[in-house]
Structure formats: structure tokens, C-alpha cells
């Protein structure tokens, strides 16, 4: 069923679909001539020996004028079925054609349509019976013809072409094509103007390119890329100041050598600040988390980012009061033997009642491979970690030792193993010294097991460090072992109640 026909807005290089002078535009006809119709001079063309009136869009509002005339319509093909074809934007007209005339045409083809206007016997409506169909310039050719005589630096004419293409999108059936072409033309215009502005260090042209990005493309980010060109900052002066003010009005901030949306700048700044904080700088993580919370209105996922900073800070210092408040943790945790108000260093295990004293000069951290961990503030790698085992009665020490050390032997690069018994007033004890690979680095490690039979409790200490830190870390682990405090055993070997 007939739907639409588009009257082409532009025919050839001149850009006019309808020729008002005595000459018709170039096309598949042998000659042209003029004749006065309704007090107006009109152009006719000759095709296959017959004369056809070149129609204007307004002609289709007067059906009586077109009735019984041979006419030339310049239209855009949509589809065909049988002897009927659909053309964009020709309301109220049946268009009929022999199938062999339109069978090779596809949607969007521009065509010259030669035919006779009569009355359809079935519907009584005006009908255009085609006698010939010829190819007309494509939309791409029309655009190329319009641009052919425009200089590259004729910014006003190129901008007018962009406006014209957008107007065609509102008129033509293939709207998406024209919108895409207008965007392509505008993008090329902005790119060329930016390059020209950089070559000549022309602030005014750079500002015009930014205007086109904002006013037509609605793309503040691209305007920011233009404003970020190095020559603008290098030249400086009032022009650079005007660019800076323009960027701020658009809600952009300058970060990493480029004007960016504020949210993007804040995210990049967060990442940079996070990467610069030492893993044991609790205050640095706390301040970063507070900064992320303060910018939550503009920073994407600000709450998640602040939570990440607080969590990393808590690993560095589990006793940081501000961090614990932000994470909703109890600031005055009972899991400590330190005096109130003092930094939590020692550890009391709630399940066994065992107390571990911190190595001198070391600090508590979030646990690594156990229940409690101490780190050396002067080291990036050294730590001592403890874990506790509640055991059934009559546990064989050697079997327990083999079970606990079996997994160590599967560590990458496991070597230099050296086992030795350790004197302990709490029961049987043994220590294993070994090395392993952590990425490309060699690490030294110590594993100690202390079994207190009456309490049915075992304490495992694990320490790790770089090679140059071996002696200091061994001393720290030895201090922890020597200061172990087990609760008093009950009369039948049962552990005393934990206070």
C-alpha cells in the first residue's frame, strides 16, 4: 500500500530541487523547455520522446492541476509490491508501476519518476502511473555536491551545511541517515577547526569549536578536550583564562592534563591518592575516606570508595577510633589487655584465654594467617601472626606438628628447612625455619608450635620477612613465645574459665 514519497530538497551541485530558470538540471533527459502554466513559467523535460512537467512540492496540493498531465517527480523509494510502490512523503497519491521498473530498487534510493496522473478506477483517487524510472543522485552525492565548492576553512558555510543536513532529517524518510551525516559533518568541522586553532594559536576559533560542541552536539566532554590542548596553557593570557572560565561553567575540572567532568576527576584523584598511601598509614586512609564522603554528591560510588579506604586503614591500625566509628565498630573493644586509652597491642584470645604480649616496638594489625598479627612499622614485609587451637585430650605432639607443617611444604619455592625443638615452660614446643618465593622475591619464614597439654590448647606462631630482616623478626617471634600466658588449668586438666 502506498505510504510516502520524499521530494528531494537538493538535486545537484546547485542544491536546488526545482529549477526556476529556462534550463532543467542535468538528468536522464534529452532536452528541456519552458512553458507558462497558471501565470508561472514552468520547465518541461523530454524523456523517451515524451514531455514531462517538472513538479514542485506545492503542486500536489492542487490535484486538478496535475490531473491528466505527464509529470516528473523526484522521489525516494521505500518499497514495492506487485504493481504498487511506496515512496516517502507523497500523501494521497497511488503510485503504480510495472514490477520490472522497480524490482532492482532498494529502500532509500533517489529516483526520477516519469508518469501520467489519472484517476484510479477502483478508488476514485488520483493515481500516478509510471512509464519510466531512472536513478537520481544519491543522498551521499547530494551532500558531496553541496560541499564541493566550500573551502575547508569556510567555517560559516560548513556550519550552514550541517544545519541544512539536520533540516533534511526532519523532511526525508531516511531520517537516521541524515542525522548521522549531520553529526559526521559537525564532527569533521570541529576537528578541522580545532586543528586550525592549534596551528594558528587562535583562541577565538577554539572558542567557536567549543561552542559548536556545546550548543549543537551537546557534548561538554568534547569541548573539554578542545580546552585541554597544550598550546592553550602554554600561551596563557586572557584567552587561556576565558577558556578556563568556560570549562568551569560547564562543570569540568582540570586533572591529569585534561578538563574532565567533576565526577571523573574526583574518581581519578581518589585512585591516585589511594595508590600513594603506604599500606600502614592508617591516618592517610582515614582522611581519604572522609574526603570521599565529603564529595559524595559528585563522586560515583563515593560510599563504596570511602568504605574501601576505611577498611584498608583498619588493617593498618585496628584501634583507630575514627575508622572504627565510620565502620560502625565498637571503639572500646574488650579484646585487649592494654590499659584504657592506650593503643591496643597485646592480644587475649576469647576462646582459650591465652594472652600474647606484643613484640617491643611493633603494632597490632588486622590478622594475617591467624587470629592476631603484629607488624613492624619500619618494614613493608615483616609480620608475626598467631592462631589458637582447642584440642581433644591426649594429642600426640609429633602428629600435630606433621599435620600443621604439611601445607607449608607446598608453598612456591619452599627450601632451606630447619627444624629445632624449643624450650617452653608451657609444654612441648618446636620451630621450623624455611624460605619460599613470593612472586619474584625470596622470603624467610618461621613456624612455631607450642602445645599446652593440661589446657588442651596449642598456639601457632608464623613470621615472615625479607632476607635482611631475618634477625629482627626472629627476635620479635622469640619475644612473643617467651611471654605466652596460659590460664590456670582446672583439677582434671580442664581449662580454667576465661574471665
Describe this structure in words.
The structure is a single chain. The model is unreliable at 1-23, 333-342 and 489-499 (pLDDT under 50). The strands form four sheets. Strands 1, 2, 3, 4, 5, 6, 7 and 8 form an eight-stranded mixed beta sheet that branches. The protein has four domains: 31-140, OB fold (Dihydrolipoamide Acetyltransferase, E2P), CATH 2.40.50.200; 151-250, no CATH class; 263-326, no CATH class; 347-482, Mog1/PsbP, alpha/beta/alpha sandwich (Protein Transport Mog1p, Chain A), CATH 3.40.1000.10. The chain is elongated. The protein has 15 helices and 19 strands. The chain has 499 residues and is an alpha+beta fold. α4 (155-171) packs antiparallel against α5, α5 (175-200) packs antiparallel against α6 and α11 packs antiparallel against α12 (302-316).
Question: Main attributes?
Answer:
499 residues; alpha+beta; 19 strands; disordered N terminus
Question: Mind sketching the topology for me?
Answer:
Layout (H helix, E strand, L loop, with lengths): L30 E7 L2 E8 L2 E5 L8 H4 L3 E12 L2 E4 L6 E3 L2 H4 L7 E10 L6 E10 L3 H9 L7 H17 L3 H26 L2 H13 L4 H8 L2 H6 L1 H13 L2 E4 L2 E4 H15 L5 H13 L7 H15 L4 H6 L20 E2 L6 E2 L6 E3 L6 E4 L7 E8 L6 H9 L9 E7 L6 E11 L2 E12 L4 E9 L4 H13 L17
Parallel strand pairs: 3-4, 6-8
Antiparallel strand pairs: 1-2, 2-3, 4-5, 4-7, 7-8, 9-10, 11-12, 13-14, 14-15, 15-19, 16-17, 17-18, 18-19
Amino acid at each position: 500500500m502506498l505510504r510516502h514519497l520524499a521530494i528531494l530538497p537538493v538535486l545537484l551541485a546547485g542544491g536546488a530541487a526545482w529549477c526556476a530558470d529556462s534550463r532543467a538540471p542535468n538528468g536522464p533527459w534529452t532536452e528541456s523547455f519552458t512553458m507558462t502554466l497558471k501565470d508561472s513559467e514552468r520547465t518541461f523535460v523530454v524523456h523517451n520522446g515524451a514531455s514531462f512537467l517538472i513538479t514542485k512540492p506545492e503542486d500536489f496540493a492542487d490535484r486538478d492541476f496535475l490531473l491528466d498531465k505527464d509529470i516528473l517527480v523526484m522521489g525516494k523509494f521505500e518499497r514495492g509490491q506487485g504493481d504498487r510502490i511506496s515512496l516517502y512523503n507523497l500523501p494521497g497519491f497511488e503510485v503504480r508501476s510495472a514490477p520490472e521498473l522497480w524490482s532492482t530498487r532498494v529502500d532509500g534510493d533517489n529516483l526520477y519518476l516519469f508518469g501520467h496522473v489519472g484517476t484510479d478506477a477502483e478508488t476514485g483517487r488520483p493515481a500516478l502511473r509510471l512509464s519510466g524510472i531512472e536513478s537520481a543522485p544519491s543522498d551521499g552525492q547530494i551532500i558531496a555536491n553541496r560541499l564541493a565548492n566550500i573551502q575547508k576553512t569556510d567555517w560559516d558555510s560548513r556550519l550552514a551545511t550541517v544545519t541544512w543536513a539536520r533540516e533534511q532529517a526532519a523532511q526525508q524518510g531516511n531520517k537516521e541517515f541524515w542525522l548521522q551525516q549531520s553529526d559526521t559533518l559537525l564532527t569533521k568541522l570541529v576537528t578541522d577547526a580545532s586543528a586550525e586553532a592549534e596551528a594558528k594559536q587562535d583562541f577565538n576559533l577554539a572558542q567557536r569549536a567549543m561552542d559548536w560542541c556545546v550548543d549543537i552536539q551537546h557534548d561538554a566532554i568534547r569541548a573539554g578536550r578542545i580546552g585541554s590542548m597544550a598550546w592553550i596553557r602554554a600561551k596563557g593570557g586572557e584567552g587561556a583564562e576565558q577558556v578556563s572560565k568556560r570549562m568551569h561553567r560547564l562543570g569540568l575540572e582540570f586533572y591529569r592534563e585534561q578538563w574532565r567532568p567533576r565526577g571523573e576527576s574526583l574518581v581519578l584523584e581518589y585512585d591516585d591518592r589511594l595508590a600513594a598511601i603506604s599500606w600502614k598509614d592508617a591516618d592517610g586512609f582515614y582522611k581519604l575516606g572522609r574526603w570521599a564522603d565529603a564529595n559524595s554528591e559528585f563522586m560515583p560510588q563515593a560510599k563504596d570508595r570511602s568504605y574501601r579506604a576505611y577498611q584498608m586503614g583498619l588493617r593498618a591500625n585496628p584501634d583507630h577510633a575514627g575508622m572504627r566509628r565510620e565502620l560502625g565498630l565498637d571503639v572500646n573493644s574488650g579484646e585487649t589487655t592494654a590499659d584504657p586509652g592506650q593503643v591496643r597491642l597485646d592480644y587475649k584470645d576469647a576462646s582459650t584465654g591465652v594472652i600474647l604480649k606484643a613484640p617491643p616496638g611493633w603494632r597490632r594489625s588486622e590478622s594475617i594467617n591467624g587470629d592476631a598479627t603484629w607488624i613492624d612499622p619500619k618494614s613493608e614485609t615483616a609480620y608475626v601472626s598467631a592462631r589458637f587451637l582447642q584440642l581433644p585430650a591426649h594429642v600426640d605432639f609429633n602428629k600435630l606438628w606433621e599435620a600443621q607443617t604439611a601445607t607449608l611444604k607446598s608453598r612456591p619455592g619452599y627450601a632451606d628447612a630447619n627444624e629445632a625443638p624449643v624450650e617452653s615452660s608451657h609444654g612441648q614446643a618446636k620451630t621450623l625455619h624455611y624460605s619460599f618465593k613470593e612472586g619474584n622475591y625470596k622470603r624467610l619464614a618461621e613456624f612455631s608450635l607450642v602445645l599446652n597439654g593440661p589446657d588442651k590448647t596449642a598456639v601457632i606462631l608464623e613470621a615472615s620477612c625479607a632476607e635482611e630482616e631475618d634477625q629482627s623478626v626472629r627476635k620479635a617471634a622469640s619475644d612473643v613465645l617467651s611471654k605466652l600466658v596460659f590460664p590456670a588449668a582446672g583439677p582434671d586438666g580442664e581449662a580454667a574459665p576465661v574471665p
